[in-house]
Design a protein that fits this description.
Elements: H1 21-63, H2 66-69, E1 73-74, E2 79-80, H3 83-112, H4 118-131, H5 136-162, H6 177-201, H7 205-213, H8 218-229, H9 231-247, H10 250-255, H11 273-280, H12 286-322
Antiparallel strand pairs: 1-2
Keywords: Cell inner membrane, Cell membrane, Membrane, Phosphate transport, Transmembrane, Transmembrane helix, Transport
Protein name: Phosphate transport system permease protein
Main location: membrane
């Protein structure tokens, strides 16, 4: 390879000449295209909210905020409430995020910090990326025929020995929160792992070298230098993974049990907003459609609030890491 500097390979003055009329035109065209794309996304979101809101308006006018605090879902009596579904959505998503966050970050560390040979790391990375391509319904079937039979003996033992704890207070008779959480964690894992890998790989290598130069061990460099430096990207991975978990539908509809109840037990059936929409909408009448659209608005609101809170916490975390007040 030639040692000739890069600037010598360019025409004289190419790096210092003022922008041409074509450069200005290309820049304006790109800016205009970006603005049009951003405006189109905003208009699309507004259109979706408007269409859902129009159909949900009768239910909003009839049930008001009691819709969020009631537990009954009785079409014949026009009684609708989604408190168990809100609980199931948040509970299952937080549990799945805890499991997937731990394993996703662990895998990202092992794939980026030279714990594995390069070829083996590429193989593991490919396998994890392939998990994101598996259809949700396949995960659901795998959960029914593999996960539930596998964890049932453990669930029975925990219920028999530690049944006095609310988390193990019921038996696992079939679909329930625990198998749904396990499958949901596996579905969220590729998102958290991929973004965490990018965050760790974006750290300049000299940062790690500086930590080693100060006498840090490999794990000290990872835990005290690399992870705090990549905290912003890792936190973004967790927020995106949580958003994916909140909106997951088919696998949860097949595994969580679709039971309209609130329980801390990991083995009891439950329900989520997404699975409620998936299971009730195909046969819903006009009255129930309005209630389901109201539930869809609530799910959108929860997702929006989670993303806003995640961005605020991310900004706060980055300020603390950088030492700014």
């Amino acid at each position: 390879m030639s040692s000739e500097p890069f600037s010598a390979a360019l025409p004289e003055g190419a790096l210092t000449r003022p922008p041409s009329a074509f450069d200005h035109l290309a820049d304006r065209a790109f800016r205009s295209l970006a603005l049009v794309a951003a405006a189109a996304l905003i208009l699309l979101l507004a259109y979706i909210l408007w269409k859902i809101g129009v159909k949900a308006l009768p239910a909003i006018g009839e049930h008001h905020f009691a819709f969020l605090t009631d537990s009954a879902w009785d079409v014949s009596n026009r009684s609708f409430g989604i408190l168990p579904e809100i609980w199931g959505t948040l509970y299952s998503s937080l549990l799945a995020l805890g499991v997937a966050g731990f394993f996703g970050l662990t895998v990202a560390i092992f794939l980026t910090q030279d714990f594995l040979p390069p070829r083996l790391a590429v193989l593991f990375r490919t396998v994890i990326e392939m998990l994101a391509a598996i259809p949700s319904v396949v995960f659901g079937l795998w959960g029914i025929f593999v996960v539930i039979p596998t964890i049932r003996p453990l669930a029975d033992w925990l219920n028999a020995e530690l049944g006095w704890l609310p988390f193990f207070g019921t038996t696992l008779s079939g679909p329930g929160l625990l198998p749904a959480t396990i499958v949901l964690a596996i579905m969220v894992l590729p998102t958290i792992t991929a973004i965490s890998q990018d965050a760790l790989q974006s750290i300049p290598y000299r940062t790690k070298e500086a930590a080693y130069g100060m006498g840090a061990t490999k794990w000290e460099a990872i835990l005290k230098v690399l992870l705090p430096t990549a905290a912003g990207g890792i936190f973004s991975a967790l927020v995106l993974g949580f958003g994916r978990a909140l909106g997951e539908t088919m696998a949860l509809a097949m595994l969580i049990g679709n039971s309209n109840q609130i329980s801390l037990s990991l083995f009891s059936p439950g329900d989520t907003l997404a699975s409620l929409l998936a299971s009730h909408f195909p046969e819903a009448g006009e009255v129930e459609v309005g209630a389901l659209m109201y539930a869809a608005l609530v799910l959108l609101a929860i997702t929006l609030l989670v993303n806003i809170a995640g961005n605020l916490l991310l900004a706060l975390t980055q300020r603390r890491i950088s030492g700014k007040s």
